[in-house]
Write a structure and sequence with these properties.
With 317 residues, the chain is mainly alpha-helical. The chain is 73% helix and 4% strand. The strands form 2 sheets. Strands 4-3-5 form a 3-stranded mixed β-sheet. Strands 1-2 form a two-stranded antiparallel sheet.
């Protein structure tokens, strides 16, 4: 039901999420596609977390950050995709303003945390390759735990203003949200409240928690590549470049799509284009992260082989 705000405008209290309105008739295909993608994200990332917890040979700084990334991907996908699947299946796309604010808050919080975790992982690889003799001295347990905790805390603290905006804004022209979940850009586009303040906050936070970590991540890989160029073995250089290039590919896609969404004025938004871009980092990135960062790792593959060959619980390794 709508309510009347202080300026006598009728403001919607329940929003109707339109989803992929131009693709009506393909609902069953979307349900299958999203369900398969979600199950893959959950199963692969849960396997990585389980192996990291119970396989003693994987209890190293690099795998500690990989586990955190897997947890972020699980939470990131679980916060959005089950709601998307059930809303398409039940054909009930209405959502209360409070639930919408919570959905957007969780999405942005896990996205911000993943930004910072990718930077932490890049720094870990920088220390391992460029300063190997002091690796375990620098990347000790206390430092890694503090680094990871800082990533999560900053990520969740960063998104409070956006949730507050969602709850306080007035949506008086229509309650139809042209997106497939409660996305900040779509909410700002349909709001008839003042959005200047939240836009400025988004730019500042984007520069701090988006552009900043991206620059640090790329800088770390630049130093890694410089060090790799000094490797005498051609095979060793090829392997190192293969790893770095795949990592950088994920970083560029993830940062590029997200920053292009939130670091520009609302007047330039094209919601249909934004939905397609958002779908890349909602569904594709969580599927690619385990493959690029984890499943190509030699030690992790060795642990997997031991688990399946011995046919026993990883805790017994």
């Amino acid at each position: 039901m709508p309510h009347i705000d202080a300026e006598n405008r009728t403001c919607a209290k329940v929003l109707l999420v339109l989803g992929f309105k131009y693709y009506c008739g393909y609902e069953f295909l979307f349900i299958i596609l999203f369900s398969v993608a979600y199950l893959q994200v959950i199963m692969v990332n849960m396997l990585i977390v389980t192996l990291g917890c119970f396989c003693h040979q994987l209890q190293k700084p690099m795998f500690f950050f990989l586990m955190n990334l897997s947890v972020a991907d699980i939470c990131f996908s679980s916060w959005i995709m089950p709601w998307m699947i059930t809303s398409i299946f039940l054909k009930n796309r209405s959502i209360s303003l409070t639930a919408c604010a919570m959905q957007m808050y969780g999405f942005l919080a896990f996205t911000s945390s993943e930004f910072l975790l990718l930077s932490a992982m890049a720094y870990d690889r920088y220390v391992a390759i460029c300063n190997p003799l002091h690796y375990y001295l620098i990347m000790n347990r206390r430092f890694c735990a503090g680094f990871a905790a800082g990533c999560w805390l900053l990520g969740f603290a960063d998104t409070f203003p956006h949730a507050w905006f969602t709850l306080r804004a007035c949506y008086c022209s229509s309650n139809r949200l042209n997106h497939f979940f409660c996305d900040l850009t779509a909410l700002m586009k349909m709001s008839c409240s003042e959005t200047y303040s939240i836009e400025r906050i988004t730019y500042v936070e984007g520069a701090f928690l988006g552009v900043g970590p991206f620059v640090l991540t790329v800088t770390s890989y630049v130093f890694i590549i410089i060090t790799v160029l000094k490797i005498q073995s051609t095979e060793g250089r090829a392997k190192a470049f293969s790893t770095c290039s795949s990592h950088l590919m994920i970083v560029v896609i993830f940062y590029g799509t997200t920053l292009s969404m939130y670091m520009r004025p609302t007047s330039t938004f094209s919601l249909e284009v934004n939905k397609m871009i958002t779908l890349i980092y909602v569904m594709i990135i969580p599927m690619l992260n385990p493959v690029v960062y984890s499943l190509r790792n030699r030690e992790l593959n060795r642990a997997l082989k031991m688990v399946f060959q011995l046919d026993m619980f990883p805790g017994m390794l």
